[in-house]
Amino acid sequence: MGRPSNQATARLAAEILGQGDTGFVVPTARQREAILVAFVREGYVIYGKAFDIVRVTMNLDLADDDNIRRHLDEIVLYEIKSTSKANIPTDFRGYFFSLSTAELLVAQNLGPRFRFAFVNTRTRTHMELSLQELFARSRGIYPSWSIMF
Predict the structure, then answer these.
(1) How far apart are the first and last CA of the chain?
(2) Span 42-92, pLDDT tens digits
(3) If you write DSSP's letter for every residue of the chain in order, what string do you get?
(4) pLDDT category, 130, cuts 50, 70, 90?
(5) In what order do the strands lie in the sheet with 125-129?
(6) In terms of Cα–Cα distance, which of 89, 83, 81, 59 is closest to 71?
(7) CB 119 within 8 A of CB 81
(8) pLDDT digits (tens, 9 = 90+) for 22-35
(9) Contact (CB, 8 A) for 13 and 4
(10) Are 80 and 127 in contact (CB under 8 A)?
(11) Dihedral sign, CA of 13, 18, 21, 25?
(12) What's the CA gap between 122 and 34, in Å, rounded?
């Protein structure tokens, strides 16, 4: 059997993070909209596709943007970077991934309210990094542009 698609790997990575009492929640379309509205109303810039999962530190109605605004400090947005390769070590050294401009801008804008979750779906290991930690660990950065006609 071949390797799973990037979308299948990302879905499995979100499921892995959401297992147990971790505080991770994969937002529904309605919750995603409420989260975006709440952050925008507080002056943050978020691109809709620039996060995959959220972590909350309390029981929170993620479909109510007013409730989210009152508890913004209890929410961290995460972008998942996932792989199913067996040869990736637990510290993800040697892992090559892309970072979109939208993800970069959202991470810069949200600061500690945004993190990256690196998940190996084969080994079920994960690592979380802020943007600053990501850049500190980087051994190379290769800018590129993705163009669609």
Answers:
(1) 33
(2) 999 888 678 999 999 999 999 999 999 999 999 999 999 999 998 999 999
(3) --PPPHHHHHHHHHHHHHSSSS-EE---HHHHHHHHHHHHHTT----TTS-SEEEESS---TT-HHHHHHTGGGEEEEEEEEE--TT--TT-TT------HHHHHHHHHHGGGEEEEEEETTTTEEEEE-HHHHHHH-S----------
(4) very high
(5) 24-25, 53-56, 75-83, 114-120, 125-129
(6) 59
(7) yes
(8) 899 999 999 999 99
(9) no
(10) no
(11) positive
(12) 33
| Exposure on the CB side of residue 79, measured as CA atoms within 13 A | 27
Residues shown for the chain? 149
> Which residue has tokens 């913004």?
72
What's the pTM?
A: 0.89
In angstroms, rounded to a whole number, what is the distance separating the alpha carbons of residues 94 and 98? 13
Give the percent of the chain with pLDDT over 70: 95
Structure tokens at 14: 């979100």
Residue at 55: amino acid letter: R
